[in-house]
Amino acid sequence: MKKTSITILSLIVALPALAQQHLPNGVVVYALPKTTLKINAEATREVFTAGPYAKFAPKYLGFEVPVDDKVSYSLKSLEMEYYVEADAAKTYTVILKDSKSASNFLSMTSTGLVAMFENNAISSVPWRFGADARQQQFTNRGHEPTLAKETTTFYRTAKTDAGFERVPVQQSQVVEKNVERRAEEVANAIFSLRKRRIEMITGDAGDGFSGDAMRAALEELNRMEQEYLSLFVGKSSFDIQSADFEVIPDPTQAKQLYVAFRFSESQGLMMRDNVAGRPIVLELVESGSKKPSATNANDTDKGRRVSYRIPEVITARLSDVQNVLLEMRVPMYQFGVVMTFPIDVR
Fold first, then answer.
1. What CA–CA distances, in Å, run from 107 to 10, 206, 256, 303, 304?
2. CA distances in angstroms from 263 to 134, 181, 255, 324, listed in the order given
3. Which residues, in sequence order, are CB contacts of 345 under 8 Å at separation 6+?
4. What residues contact 307, with CB distance under 8 A and at least 6 apart?
5. Does the N-terminal or the C-terminal CB of the chain have fewer CB atoms within 10 Å?
6. Residue 34 forms beta bridges with which residues?
7. Start-to-end Cα distance in the chain
8. Range with the poorest average pLDDT among 1-5, 107-111, 135-139
9. Which helix (H) or strand (E) holds 242?
10. Residues 318/282, Cβ–Cβ less than 8 Å
């Protein structure tokens, strides 16, 4: 929500601190505006699940792959906006004891010199996380059965004419294949699919595929290969984490540096007081242009002049200390000067 008017005054009908006080008729209490910066941040969360045959990839496929599950974050986008709210430290009163003064005061409101306090409240945005997809399901674990037949030789003692002898007896049983054997079969299936694809492309397969049939067959081979490869290289799922952070700059602060929020590759977006993440710093750079001289009302004019602020346009810069991530110009009211305007304009 951006305000571009140079002289804007935020009017409040009643401030909480003064609401309990009895004000004379015709006296209006108002507050000068201040600028609040709002940073909208989004991060991408990657949930990586290692393949069940990851440790056998160097042996059967010839390359290394991650063997451990991991959750990681990366900054996706940053947006910075500003809005105007009442500065409770800068409250004034103006006397509207006759209709002419009230008419002038309202005329200034309609022309933009004084802006009514608008609905600038920003609703809080909850942190959003997708369902944890750490337990990825590798349902296709190969094209061969997981059981195999093994033959075991036993020996028993039998009585013969020559005496007692050990006689071999073979016994077959069905056992579950070990993990490495299944990984080997999947690797062989991958190479078989690749060989089949090359034969189809070069015309050596003899299937007579062409046009859409060839395209569909190749797409299916590619899909099957990726499914088998995922058993070695693993799978990743992605979702978005988002959060809003607000900064109210303080003009009395010597160095205009603020920690807007923090970011961690392992935990994502974090509040500014969580030192587990690296800081994302907001730096405010003043333009250095000459400010107009402030004017003060005489005691005899007290209550008959309207005070307003002329904001200073500053450069707001977001960085991770090493790299500038975002930069924009912002009219900062609390950095500007307070001027006065006679309410009885003739």
1. 15, 88, 37, 18, 15
2. 21, 43, 22, 15
3. 104
4. 9, 32, 92, 297, 338, 339, 340, 341
5. C
6. 85
7. 35
8. 1-5
9. strand 235-247
10. yes
pLDDT tens sequence across 31-78 = 888 899 999 999 999 999 999 999 999 999 888 999 999 999 999 999
Residue 54 carries which DSSP code? G
State the burial class of residue 185 (Cβ atoms within 10 Å of its Cβ: 0-12, 13-18, 19+). buried
Report the C-alpha gap between 246 and 283 in whole angstroms. 14
Q: Do residues 33 and 309 make contact, with C-beta atoms less than 8 angstroms apart?
A: yes
Which of 332, 319, 253 lies closest to 83 in space, CA to CA? 332
CA 22 vs CA 19, 29, 101: distances in Å? 8, 12, 21
Which one, of 284, 261, 281, lies nearest residue 271 by Cα? Answer: 261
HEC readout, 150-182: EEEEEEEEEEECCEEEEEEEEEEEEEECCHHHH
* pLDDT over 50 (residue 323): yes
Average pLDDT over residues 22-30: 72
For residues 108 and 344, give the distance between their C-alpha atoms in angstroms, rounded to a whole number: 11
Q: What is the pTM of this model?
A: 0.67
- Alpha-carbon distance of 343 to 346, in angstroms, equals 9
Q: Please tell me whether residue 18 adopts helix, strand or coil conformation.
A: coil
Each residue of 260-274: b (16+ CB within 10 Å) or e? bbbbeeebbbbebee
Residue 306 has pLDDT above 70, yes or no: yes
Average pLDDT (218-238) is: 91
| Nearest partner of 227 among 335, 298, 141, 340, judged by Cα | 141
